[in-house]
TrEMBL record:
Organism of derivation: Cupriavidus lacunae
Cellular component, GO annotation: cytoplasm
UniProt-recorded name of the protein: Ornithine cyclodeaminase family protein
Pfam families listed in its UniProt record: OCD_Mu_crystall
InterPro entries named in the record: NAD(P)-bd_dom_sf, ODC_Mu_crystall, ODC_N
Matching PANTHER family: KETIMINE REDUCTASE MU-CRYSTALLIN
Superkingdom of this protein's organism: Bacteria
Length: 334
């Protein structure tokens, strides 16, 4: 009897059904606790012509069963432009394509889970008041991820549209049982917050967070400045931070608008910026003990996509929720 090597497909609906925040956070902490060779998780690549672009993030996690890449693309000149995400997972045991995972939700899941994984080691281990700047999907997922690693006493959200921030606060209270409210300014949201989440790019690419808004010993999570043209935090926040942990160290420091602006302002941040591996391995314990203001800055990486996609594929297979594809890729012996 021949063995079938047909791959399976995991939809976003299935990803949502099987995903678990605590499991994803723990898996990412474990992945970043190991020594990661640079070639294991290279920088993203972007191909573009005119208004059409294609981005690829790849990784071969240390110790994982699956390896692969997330591919996303958009033709902004089309009649109805949009972005689609596909994660291709290869199986180390068979050297074949094992599955295709819709990456739309996975991207949000892995970004928030990575932030929570870092925050769990950065923020003091006590109940916290959370300020949220932004009310979109990334902000929503982050609140749920952060609630998995810290008891939240209150969530205060600001976004420019009153209806959106009110709906966001109502959903937080309904889903998490945490007191939440919307406020009319970013400064009001941040006032007195133990943890500050920046999950929204500003109109006109101006900063949405300033250092004089922060209480002493605040911990900041910033995810909205991922390329040179994007801004989220003011250079004063970079200056104030005693320790900055980055998911992709070189990309964050050299290719994001926030850090380029801080460099232009003459702020020296390289000697206080560290990788996720250094954080998870315990190498920063002494520095964390002395740090008052701590920040996690993220641009996203292929390692996060593959680790979380592996979890989702594994759980979907266990629960019989995958779609078996009536295809088989040709496998060439090497």
């Amino acid at each position: 009897m021949s063995i079938s090597h047909s791959p399976v497909f995991v939809s976003s609906d299935t990803a949502r059904a099987v995903f678990d925040w605590k499991e994803a956070i723990q898996a990412l902490q474990a992945a970043y606790s190991q020594s990661i060779p640079p070639q294991s998780t290279p920088a993203r690549s972007v191909a573009a012509v005119g208004k059409t672009w294609l981005r690829t993030l790849s990784a071969v996690p240390v110790g994982g069963r699956y390896y692969g890449a997330k591919v996303m693309g958009a033709a902004m000149g089309s009649a109805k432009p949009g972005v689609e995400y596909a994660i291709v997972l290869f199986d180390r045991d068979t050297s074949r394509i094992a599955g295709l995972v819709d990456g739309a939700l996975v991207t949000g899941f892995r970004t928030a889970a990575t932030s929570a994984a870092a925050l769990d080691r950065l923020a003091p281990p006590r109940p916290a008041r959370l300020a949220v700047l932004g009310s979109g999907l990334e902000a929503s997922m982050h609140v749920r991820a952060i609630a998995s690693v810290r008891e939240l006493t209150e969530v205060v959200v600001f976004s420019p549209t009153p209806e959106k921030r009110a709906a966001f606060a109502e959903a937080v209270t309904h889903d998490l049982g945490v007191q939440a409210r919307g406020v009319a300014s970013g400064q009001e949201a941040v006032d007195g917050a133990d943890i500050v989440l920046c999950a929204a790019r500003s109109r006109g690419e101006l900063p949405i967070l300033y250092s004089d808004w922060l209480k002493p010993e605040a911990t900041i999570v910033s995810i909205g400045s991922t390329v040179p043209s994007q801004r989220e935090i003011d250079a004063s926040v970079v200056a104030r931070s005693d320790i900055i942990v980055c998911d992709m160290l070189e990309e964050v420091l050299e290719e994001t608008g926030d850090m380029l602006a801080a460099k232009e302002a003459g702020i020296n941040f390289h000697d206080k910026s560290f990788s996720m591996v250094e954080l998870m391995s315990g190498k920063l314990e002494d520095k964390l003990g002395r740090a008052r203001t701590r920040m996690f800055k993220s641009v996203g990486g292929g390692l996060q996509d593959i680790v979380v996609a592996e979890l989702i594929l594994t759980r979907a297979l266990e629960r019989g929720l995958v779609t078996h594809l009536p295809i088989e890729f040709e496998n060439k012996s090497i």
